Q: What sequence folds into this?
């Protein structure tokens, strides 16, 4: 039978951590003839078309039910949209979507307000801010960062700050201690 249509069988609209394989099910397509009957033995090519990442088993063949499944689909390392396209000959391709979610917090680093000077007993001009990212450098939002004076005395206001969409948490105010240095 001649392939006339390719459609999503399973595996669309998944989410996974960035840099990992979609966990629910590998994407699969179903190939049918003009009458809706399955087409076994049709060559299907899977390719990542957005978001980076990779696939195994990119060249697949439909089974007796007309279904072909990619071996695995690993999402790219940037959080956000990913796409995988399945192509059968000259038929319109089918695209699978997946969302790469930010991984666990991995690195907290100074983002603003470091190495300032101010008069003793007064607040620094730029409230210190830190940026929290996952292992791939994606910002991690919604995590509480606690700021505390480490030396020299002084105080902080708004010491518990939550990271925003860019992974940045900013202390309310840092007032230096009363000793020069």
A:
């Amino acid at each position: 039978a001649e392939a006339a249509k390719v459609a999503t069988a399973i595996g669309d609209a998944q989410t996974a951590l960035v840099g990992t394989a979609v966990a629910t099910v590998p994407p699969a397509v179903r190939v049918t003839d003009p009458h809706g009957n399955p087409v076994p033995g049709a060559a299907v090519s899977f390719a990542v078309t957005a978001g980076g990442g990779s696939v195994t088993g990119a060249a697949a063949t439909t089974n007796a039910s007309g279904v072909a499944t990619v071996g695995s689909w690993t999402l790219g390392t940037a959080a956000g949209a990913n796409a995988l396209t399945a192509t059968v000959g000259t038929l319109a391709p089918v695209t699978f979507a997946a969302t790469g979610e930010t991984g666990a917090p991995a690195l907290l680093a100074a983002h603003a307000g470091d190495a300032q000077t101010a008069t003793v007993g007064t607040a620094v001009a730029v409230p210190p801010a830190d940026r929290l990212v996952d292992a791939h450098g994606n910002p991690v939002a919604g995590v509480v960062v606690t700021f505390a004076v480490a030396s020299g005395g002084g105080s902080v206001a708004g010491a518990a700050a939550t990271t925003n969409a860019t992974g940045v948490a900013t202390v309310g105010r840092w007032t230096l201690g009363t000793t020069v240095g």
Q: What stands out?
A: The first strand starts at residue 5 and ends at 10. The mean pLDDT is 96. The chain has no helices and 17 strands. The two ends are 83 Å apart (CA to CA).
